[in-house]
Each structure stands twice: as C-alpha cells, then as structure tokens.
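Weekend entry, working from home. Most of the wet-lab plans are on hold until the incubator is repaired, so I used the time to fold the two sequences that have been sitting in the queue since the last round of cloning. Logging both here for the record. First:
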Amino acid sequence: MTAVARPEPRSARRLSRGERREQLVAAALPVVARQGLGGFSLDAIAARAEVTRNLLYHYFPRGRADIVLAVAERAGGQLTRGWVTDEFQPLSGRLSANFARIMDHALAPTHAWRIHRMARAALDPELDQVVERFVDVVISSIALNHLGTPDPPPLVRLALDGFVAFTETVLEQARSQALPRAQVATLLTQTLTATIDAALSAT
C-alpha cells in the first residue's frame, strides 16, 4: 500500500513590527488592568504574548514606563472610539448611545476603564498628556453634538472637562452601590444639559 504524502504544515506568517507591537499591547492590557500600573509583571505579559521578556524591551525600551503609556493609549482609544455625533440622529438618541457605551465600560468594568482610571490618578506628566488627549476627544464630541462645533468656548470647555470627571466619579459609585442604570443615565443626561446651559449663560 502506497503511503500518501501529507502536505508540509505552513509556518505561521511573521508579524510586521507594527503588528507585533499591537499584539504585545493587547497582551499587556489585561495584565496591567489587574496588577496595576506600577506592579505588573513583565513575565506575565511575555507569557500571554508567547514571547521572551527581552523582546518586550525591544519594543518598549524603558520597560514598564513605555508599556504603561502604550496601554493607556489603547485604553483611551477603546473608551472614545465610536462616539456618536451623527447630526441626522436626534440628540436624545446620540446621548443615549454615548452614555450607554461609557456605562458599559464603567459598570463592567472593562480593562480599558480600569487603566484609564488608574492613569487619571497616577500624577505622571506623560500619562496626564495621554489622558488629556482622550478627554479632549470626548469634550469635542459633546460640543459637536450640543453646539454644532468641536471647539467650544473656553468656559464651556472648562465646564465639560469638569463634567467628564464628574461622570467618571458617578459611574464608579454607581457600580460600587449597584445603582439602577437607567436612573444613573438620567442623572448624567440632566447634569450635562444643565452644565452646558450654565456655561453658556456665563459667557
């Protein structure tokens, strides 16, 4: 009986530098979210990504510091991606969709939410820049929805910055106290409207 030759298994495609870095950041996200910005294990990240610890330093030369910045960037992107600003949708629908998205992150909480909250509290200048950039995305999106421009007046921007911080605190408390989601959404919607009205009247 003649043996049938089996095809040689294909070797896995080698990842590009960008793809490899994305893989490493994805592996780092849950580790940092669970273990904290300062105490996470490089070995745990390497094991999740199935690479050596030395390879981490190849992509993140400063080790933990560069990994923290990378996961903070990833977290900010996940939290702000898909913000609804379609002017053809009713404002109430846009508000509902946007609050639903951020509440999904906060009430779970997702890895992105945990890392964002830790970055907020870190008091690190580099992390502050990352956080501020994504907070600005939220502020610009809110302003676009309510004022028709992504660039609100300075006093409105200041008020919205405070509203974003307020929202994060409310959602943290809502999760810890298991408050009804619908009531929390109503509170945030009413507070946002009042915040914008107050800021506009003061300009």
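Second, folded right after the first finished:
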Amino acid sequence: MTRNTPNLRCFALLVIASAILYASPAASVAAAMPQDAAPDVPAAPKLEFVFEEYVTLDKAVPVGDTAFGHRTIIPITGGTVTGPKFNGKILPGGWDWQLHLPNGCASLAANYMIQANDGTIVNVSNKGVLCGPPRANSYWTPTFEAPNGAYDWMTSGTFIDVLTGAGTPEHPAVRIRFYQVK
C-alpha cells in the first residue's frame, strides 16, 4: 500500500455519498422545483401572555470591579406571580447577578424559585442585557425547570419576558411579564 491509500479511501467514500445524495427522493424533488420558486416561509411566531411577576428585592450588594466589569448582586426577597397559566409566589433566596460593562450596558442573570398555588416549585433562570436608563424596558430569555407533570409546558416551552420598572428606592422591586412563543 502507498501513502495515498487513506486519501483514496476518503475520495471513494465522498463519491459514493454524493451518488447516494443525488439519487435520493429529496434531491430529485429539489432538482424538479422551478428555479424561481420561493421556499415555504413559516409564519412569524406569536406571543401568548402566561403570567406576570412582581419581584421584591433587597438592597444591592456591591462586589466591586472585576476583570469583566463592575459586579453587583441583588438578593430576591419574594413576590407574587399572577396570570392565566400560572399563579403563586416567589420564594426568598434568589439572586440577580449584574455585571456593569464599560460600554454602559449591564449583563443580568437572575436565578430564583417560584411556587405555584398547588405547592409545585419551579426554578427560573432569567438572562438579559440592559442598555439605557435604569429600569427601562428590556427583553430577557427565561428558562424554567419544573418537575414532571402539570408544568411540563414551562420546561419544554420557549419564552421571552419584558422587565419594567416598579417599586421605589425604599421598596425596590421589578415587574416582569412572561410570554410564551407560539
């Protein structure tokens, strides 16, 4: 055998794979489509409002300047959850990790638990970037971890949420509206 034998094997496999691909029914259909035919475009997704949180917060805890920016953490002390698909409360003990970047934006990552009225506990991991004045509307991408059962729709769904200002300096809080992508 010569040194080029592995290259010949690879070339032979490539030729065989190409022949199979072009002989497949999908390739035949694609070849039969008129050149000016537009592919089917799926409909734009719609958003369904599922619930709103009113999250109470404690005072910010400054961590300080890091190699990535200025870090602050904000304890989550509780709150309420109301809406057509989920009702309950926010359990104390979560955190909002904020990294203030040199460009004036902040990278935010909150992790906390919500408890449904039936006692089921769901973990929320909510991430986003905020650029602009504090408490301006910002869109986040939450993920949920729910136990198997009635709240599977949360674990398997795709969501966005909008954070809006709420509360006062004496009583810090945020209002977050959650939407499921349909």
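Plan for Monday: verify the second prediction. The longest helix spans residues 5-23.
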